[in-house]
Amino acid sequence: MSEPSENPTYKFYYFNFRGLGEPIRLLLAYGGIEYEDVRIPKEEWPEHKPTMPLHQMPVLEIDESRVYQHVSILRYLGKKVGLSGESDWENLQIDMVADIMNEFRLKLVGVYQETDEEIKAKKLEDIKNETIPLYLGKLDGMVEENNGYLVAGKLTWVDVYLAGISDLWKLLAGYDVAADYSNLQNAIENVNSIETIKNWIENRPETEF
Amino acid sequence: MSEPSENPTYKFYYFNFRGLGEPIRLLLAYGGIEYEDVRIPKEEWPEHKPTMPLHQMPVLEIDESRVYQHVSILRYLGKKVGLSGESDWENLQIDMVADIMNEFRLKLVGVYQETDEEIKAKKLEDIKNETIPLYLGKLDGMVEENNGYLVAGKLTWVDVYLAGISDLWKLLAGYDVAADYSNLQNAIENVNSIETIKNWIENRPETEF
């Protein structure tokens, strides 16, 4: 993959859906990075699928190169827009939180994709009683200790990840799993009230999730 | 979490098993970093579990701080031992490959944990026909283009990740899924033949996986 030019063009491919794509869109909005927001209609996905790396989206096209894996993209753009940590140690904390959030999402996906109704109900119980208190309790405690942010007492790209991904948690679990975690709500609000991001949210295409 | 001292002490917690822990052990060996290799016996895990962050291992204790999430640890140590990329762009490629490998592993876990034998057989078929060719084909092609390494034509921490994790793929799938991918075998061999790593492999505790 060829390294991008100094002022690359950006083209973002995802569904017409917030989902895994929205944290990236929020970060692009934060950084004032212009891009083409390509939204593939669900019914056209089968024809696009084989053209995407690993047959998946989100994909960010930077000049001619297509990059993927949403957390990797967030880390890269986060550095570009000045939202990385100031030391290797801070970056380790940021990366850990990103991995925790991804792991949490995948546990919700495990419930969401279960087709056996009985097993699904059982899995949802476990999620409610164990996974959610463990993971969201952990993240909530971090925000409490970090001045309304997840890491290092200040805004980093992982806060933007949280604000962008929390809608997907609702879809996957079937209810607002983070509603009772006041510090997490606080952290999300701290991101969503940033002028550039607020502006994006007010003007973005309306979608259910 | 407090930032480590200049010459921190390292203590590594995992099972007596290569699994998710081995890529980290290989990287520590590569860097000549001394550490205490704590191996929790399976039968003692229930008492240790609540003491571990997010009730999971591997955990690396750096001075007094316990860090977790194996890919985050690998990225942090990788930088410490000089195996990061030389630019943000190279680091993006490295991170993408790490995320691809983690995603691949989790797909294998989905089969491994399936308890319904009929569904398990079906899932294993899909893995064989779709997931393995797609993911390992992709990684194999990268090594082919990169001089025996995954990214940037040289050794980085993600090659060490590959060499350390490939045993776990075998366990999860029930057979050596990477056996027919000659470039991947090459990349693994390029890591395993590094003197410090070779020495670790020859002297490490013997375990089945």
Structure description:
The structure is a homodimer of 209-residue chains. By secondary structure, chain A is an alpha+beta fold. Chain A folds into two domains: 10-81 and 196-203, Glutaredoxin, CATH 3.40.30; 88-193, Glutathione S-transferase Yfyf (Class Pi), Chain A, domain 2 (Up-down Bundle). Helices cover 55% and strands 9% of the residues of chain A. Chain A is built from eight helices and four strands; from the N terminus they run E-H-E-H-E-E-H-H-H-H-H-H. Chain A has helices at residues 22-30, 45-48, 70-80, 88-112, 117-145, 157-173, 182-192, 195-203; strands at residues 10-15, 36-40, 59-62, 65-68. Chain A has a four-stranded mixed beta sheet, with helices on one face. In chain A, helix 1 packs parallel to helix 3 (70-80), helix 4 runs parallel beside helix 6 and helix 6 packs across helix 7. Chain A is globular and about 50 Å long. The interface between A and B is medium-sized, with 33 and 33 residues.
